[in-house]
Design goal:
alpha+beta; Jelly Rolls; 4 helices
Amino acid sequence: MDKCRKLIQLCIELLRELRDLTPGRGAEEWLNRTYGPTSDTYRELATMIRNGVEEGWAANGEVHGRRYRRSQLCPPSDETLHFSITAVYIDSMACSEAAQESFRGDYHGHPYGEFNLIVPLHEGAQLAGPNGWCHAGWTAPPPGSHHYPEVRGGAVIALFFLPAGRISYVAPPIQAMNEPI
């Protein structure tokens, strides 16, 4: 079995538990208690997705150069309990390796919410979630939420699970367009 397929199989085991949860604060807290960074499931998923990025089969499609990449590992299907699985690599470090305060990715919305496994690649790297900055663990933006994914302190990989594969890359609201990126 190839490495991507092994990762997807492990994700499917997890999705059996997530399928009846609604993304949001409660689900995020449960995920961090049950499958947080000290759990075997988190450590195994983190290792597999880190290897996937290093080996070039995950988060390999450049969105904004090498510092912001993503790839859908699989679309929603009966097998994945109607979740899509996507890997995103985002790095707040400039090409010169000088740390920037933060880096924002593409504005998007979550019609049905999303579950994100956050794997930092640098000590102190964090991804902004609905409950604040997340170093390692889970975020779970609720249905109808929208944001710019934002990272600070280095690079992270986010392995995200979208119910029905729903994500909306619509134009941001006027006030968000006027904010500095």
